Amino acid sequence: VLAAEGGATVMRWCAIGLMALAAFQAEGAIHAVVIRGSGGEAEYETRFADWTARLTAALHGRLYIPAENITAVGGERGARLDEIETAFAALAARSAAEDAVAVFLIGHGSY
């Protein structure tokens, strides 16, 4: 789903992980935070933006997480620290103790 080179496998593991969260957290809501890192090069910037869009769409469309419970962080150059802090502060304000949170990191760790 995410990309030809192993992306479908990654998506399956993400789905399995979220289903496990749902099973353990049936009483609360599920929230997802997708943090897009810097690609460093145009090819990777494009790829990471595509993966972010596909993942957030799948979380909502295939796993039925409400759109308001999905936060994507990271603009053209990847997520900045202040954006990440703001996203988690907002998540803390709108979530409850019985909710589950899944955090997805998209990047390659070099930049």
Detailed description of the structure:
The protein is of the alpha/beta class. It contains 3 helices and 3 strands; from the N terminus they run αβαβαβ. A 3-stranded parallel beta sheet has the order 2-1-3, sandwiched between helices. Strand 1, helix 2 (42-61) and strand 2 (70-73) form a beta-alpha-beta unit. The chain starts with 6 loop residues before the first helix and ends in a 5-residue tail after the last strand.
Annotation keywords:
single chain, 3-stranded parallel β-sheet, globular, disordered N terminus, alpha/beta, 111 residues
Write the layout of secondary structure elements.
Layout (H helix, E strand, L loop, with lengths): L6 H18 L5 E7 L5 H20 L8 E4 L7 H14 L5 E7 L5
Parallel strand pairs: 1-2, 1-3
Question: In a few lines, what is going on in this structure?
Answer:
With 111 residues, the chain is of the alpha/beta class. The protein is built from three helices and three strands; from the N terminus they run αβαβαβ.
> What's the alpha carbon Rg, rounded to whole Å?
14 Å
Shape: globular
Write down how many β-strands occur, each being a DSSP E stretch of 2 or more residues.
3
How does the helix and strand content classify structurally?
alpha/beta
Give the strand order, joined by hyphens, for the main sheet.
2-1-3
Q: State the distance separating the first and last CA atoms.
A: 25 Å
Order of helices and strands: HEHEHE
What is the count of helical runs?
Answer: 3
Helix content: 40-55%
Mean pLDDT: 82
- What share of the residues does DSSP label as strand, in percent? 15-25%
Strand count, sense and barrel status of the largest sheet are: 3 strands, parallel
Low-confidence stretches: 1-5
